[in-house]
Amino acid sequence: MKKKLIIFGSSEISEIANFYFSNFSSYEISCFVIDEEFIKENYFCEKPILPFKNIEKKFLPSEYDFHVALSYKKLNRLKETKFLEVKKKGYKCANFISPSNHINLNNVSFGENCFILENQSIQNNAKIGNNVMIWSSNHIGHQTTIGDHSYISSHVVISGHCQIGERCFFGVNSSVADFSVIGNDCFIGMGANVNKDMKDNSTALNRSTNYFDDDNPVIKKIKKKYFDLS
Q1: What is the pTM of this model?
Q2: How many domains would you assign to the chain?
Q3: CA proximity to 36, closest of 15, 50, 26, 21
């Protein structure tokens, strides 16, 4: 018999969580819950939407697990708040870890409510905190720690022996040098290359790509060189 799961949320992230848990885990989705003032429909993904308030009286924590499926809104603080509210009600928060990943589960530790999509390389003795979302195709080096409530998008490289704080956000194609210490609430933008420590609430942004019209003489020379254009 499949284990019973309640998902907090009724957005795109919740729909994605429903897909992965339903198709690649031992869980069966029982319902979705959100705060009562935000309920506008009775069903989501063909499952009932119920108010979060007093949910534990109808769905006992001893019989159901929870997964908080929210985005990085408010730099992950909303997701942190709801995770802590769910834990206060006594529920265990389920992880989804894609079976396609290259992870030595004997030497990598995960907290609760992690959502780890496909094609990760997570090396020995890495520690992933609570409520962490890691989108597809990332590298997390050995001995690295990812703090609670952080969000890692796609094709991010976090090298070995790094210490990542809580509620951090890593944009697509960003990278972090080994032995780096990243504080809490840091925003690492798309394509940023971090090679020094970052204090709490810091931001790292890559410079924007330069764009040129086709009639630019420098660009003409570059295209001629690389593509043998006449």
Answers
A1: 0.92
A2: 2
A3: 50
The string of DSSP codes covering 53-109 is TTHHHHS-TTT-EEEE----TTTTHHHHHHHHHHHHTTPPBPPEE-TTSEE-TTT-E
Length of the chain: 230
Helix (H/G/I), strand (E/B), else coil: 215: coil
CA distance 169 to 188: 6
Q: Each residue of 116-147: pLDDT tens digit?
A: 999 999 999 999 999 999 999 999 999 999 99
Task: Report the C-alpha gap between 10 and 93 in whole angstroms.
Answer: 17
Task: Check pLDDT > 90 for residue 104.
Answer: no
**Rounded to the nearest 5 degrees, what angle is found at the Cα of 121, between the Cα atoms of 115 and 126?**
75
Banded model confidence at residue 230, pLDDT cuts 50, 70, 90: low
Give the separation between CA 23 and CA 197, rounded to whole angstroms: 40
Residue 219 in any domain: the answer is: yes
Residues 224, 142 share a domain: yes
Provide the token pair at 209. 């790509």
pLDDT of residue 157: 98
What is the spatial distance between Cα 79 and Cα 214, in angstroms, rounded to a whole number? 46
Does 82 share its domain with 128?
A: no
Q: For 78, phi and psi rounded to 5 degrees?
A: -65, -45
- Range of the structural domain that residue 230 is part of: 121-230
pLDDT at 14: 98
Specify whether 172 is located in the same domain as 69.
no
Report the share of the chain in percent with pLDDT over 70. Answer: 100
